[in-house]
Specification:
heterodimer; A: five-stranded mixed sheet; elongated; disordered C terminus; B: about 400 residues; alpha+beta; three-stranded antiparallel sheet; 8 strands
Chain lengths: ~180, ~400
């Protein structure tokens, strides 16, 4: 184990001191630090990690989903938080159902969450509550299904006859922008 | 919101659609720009035209087959992408490559950085009207690609790394050719700089254009030259050294203001530093095995010589080809410094021969998401300059 990992373990101990009640699970295998929290507590935990002067997690480096179809709450969203000042990296995990109506968005805390959350919505179908512009980002607007779910087949294509090119507004862009 | 008839009448809310097919977007990026006169009010990048769901494809490939997907994401810096991927799989398996392999990996990654920056410089300059630069850059890029071809057999998509080492040992021709290249290249960088760095026209187009502050850059998760141009000295090679980067002596250049010119200066200096690293690595390649087969026979492919002369080697080569490697259950994250920024891989293994999930943290994806922030309030012509300075690559943004 090298010195950076030790630093990250210091960060973990600080979080555990203050936010113990929000942490469900801690996993430190393979040298990375991963903590699991409930979706209700996620914004508060992340806000604490960003604003605490000892931690200073100022960058949301990545945000992505993983699908575990056998679980009841099958989507696991993983937040990759990084502190540029202290060189800490901690992964925060949060589980949810696909049709969860109250999954919190972090767009008010980190700007970079905007596109990442759109990507998770596009590929997994998880709707973030409070996102300013939740639209598909990689797939076309009228795409059917969410490709990274495990029950989505690898080579699925929309049937051509399903696409109605003559329908009013099919080829027009309805709206745009981050309004 | 807006409808097309509004755009035709209202001059103050004039909307211009750039791309998806447009020379300055370097691929198929579409930008919808809302203008007030000639000033950008809002620039919304619309991506996804190159989306092929490579993360999904990786779940249906064995670990080594999935490696060939990674260099097709960022196709002008293939070896860097392979490196990040292989390091993640090695972390999952608990394998460490030999020192010789690590040095060769560094050489390839840095050569790739040079070739990628040459593509950026050529296209960025040609977007702003300096055609000569483009011809110069592609002339030297050809030399770099030839070098990579001598070593790996492929020009842009090498897939040369294996878990625990390399596919082949270094050929002696490569060392000779690389030494020649190191001799001539510093003079070439001076030539590029002579055309642009103190050029009045270049100043006008790049100075104080597309400024992004350090705080905003971190908030938008920018990495690589875009973040260092804003003055934050964040380079994964220095902060969390991987693949023996701690052995080499190099500087991390930074800018002050965070405008297009700073990002240009940072990348130019990075090419010199990369060349320095290649030089050090090339002169100090340690002797020894290029595959760490003896230490981890379970995960590492046997070298061809062993496979064809010993029985165990033959069996393990056969198993390797038929079954692939099976890392233990677990999750691992490794990030490396790609020419465009921090490229991270998060791999989840369920103990089978196929990755359960491969997540790529794409650097250009974050970088281009800050385009609106950088372009707001500038002229439409500056948008092309800003877009060039971000150095986007759509293959990796859309994946």
């Amino acid at each position: 184990m090298n010195s950076e990992d030790m630093e990250t373990f210091f960060a973990l101990s600080v979080i555990k001191d203050v936010m113990q009640k929000y942490i469900i699970l801690t996993d430190t295998s393979n040298g990375d630090v991963r903590i699991t929290t409930a979706k209700e507590n996620l914004p508060e935990l992340v806000k604490f990690m960003k604003e605490d002067s000892r931690l200073n997690f100022d960058m949301l480096s990545d945000l992505f989903g993983v699908d575990y179809p056998k679980r009841d709450e099958r989507i696991e969203v993983i937040y990759n938080l990084y502190s540029t000042k202290n060189n800490f990296r901690i992964f925060v995990k949060c589980r949810s159902k696909i049709d969860e109506p109250d999954y919190p968005s972090l767009t008010s805390i980190y700007e970079s969450a905007n596109w990442f959350e759109r990507e998770v919505y596009d590929l997994f179908g998880l709707k973030f509550k409070g996102h300013p512009h939740l639209k598909r980002i990689l797939n076309p607007e009228d795409w059917d299904g969410h490709p990274l779910l495990k029950d989505y087949p690898l080579r699925k294509r929309p049937a051509v006859e399903e696409l109605n090119f003559d329908a009013p507004g099919f080829l027009e862009e309805k709206e745009f922008g981050n309004k | 919101m807006f409808e097309y008839k509004d755009f035709l009448i209202d001059v103050e809310n004039f909307v211009v659609n750039i791309g998806p097919q447009h020379p300055s977007t370097h691929g198929v990026l579409r930008i919808v720009v809302q203008l007030d006169g000639e000033t950008v009010v809002h620039a919304e990048p619309i991506i996804g035209y190159l989306h092929t769901s490579m993360e999904k494809y990786a779940e249906f490939r064995t670990y080594h087959q999935a490696e060939t997907i990674t260099d097709r994401m960022d196709y002008v810096s293939g070896a860097s992408n392979n490196l990040g991927y292989i390091l993640t799989v090695e972390k999952l398996c608990g394998v460490k490559a030999t020192k010789r392999a690590e040095y060769v990996r560094v050489i390839l990654a840095e050569l790739t950085r040079i070739s990628s920056h040459l593509v950026w410089l050529g296209t960025h300059a040609v977007d702003l009207g300096a055609l000569t630069e483009f011809l110069y850059c592609f002339r030297e890029r050809e030399l770099v690609l030839d070098l990579i071809e001598t070593l790996t057999g492929a020009r842009m998509t090498p897939s040369f790394f294996r878990v625990g080492g390399l596919a082949k040992d270094v050929h002696k021709d490569f060392v000779e050719k690389a030494r020649d290249f190191i001799k001539i290249f510093p003079e070439k960088i001076n030539q590029y700089e002579a055309l642009l760095t103190n050029n009045k026209i270049w100043f006008e187009r790049t100075k104080n254009v597309g400024i992004i502050s350090k705080e905003d850059a971190v908030n938008f998760a920018l990495t690589g030259p875009c973040l260092r141009g804003s003055g934050l000295k964040y380079d994964v090679r220095k902060i969390n050294p991987y693949s023996s980067y701690e052995d080499f002596d190099f500087d991390v250049p930074t800018g002050d203001v965070g405008d297009v010119y700073d990002r240009y200066i940072v990348r130019m200096e990075e090419m010199r530093q990369s060349l320095k690293i290649v030089h050090q690595a090339l002169e100090n390649i340690p002797e020894g095995e290029f595959l760490n087969y003896d230490a981890y026979p379970q995960y590492v492919i046997p070298p061809k010589k062993r496979a064809l002369t010993t029985m165990e080697g033959m069996i393990s080569l056969f198993k390797y080809g038929m079954e692939g490697i099976k890392p233990p259950k677990g999750e691992a994250y490794v990030s490396i410094e790609n020419p465009r920024g921090e490229l991270g891989y998060y791999m989840i293994s369920d103990g089978s021969a196929f990755p359960y999930r491969m997540r790529v943290r794409p650097p250009s994806f974050c970088n281009v998401s800050a385009l609106n922030k950088m372009a707001k309030g500038h002229l439409l012509a500056d948008l092309v300059s800003i877009l060039g300075s971000i150095d986007i690559l759509l293959g990796e943004i859309d994946r």
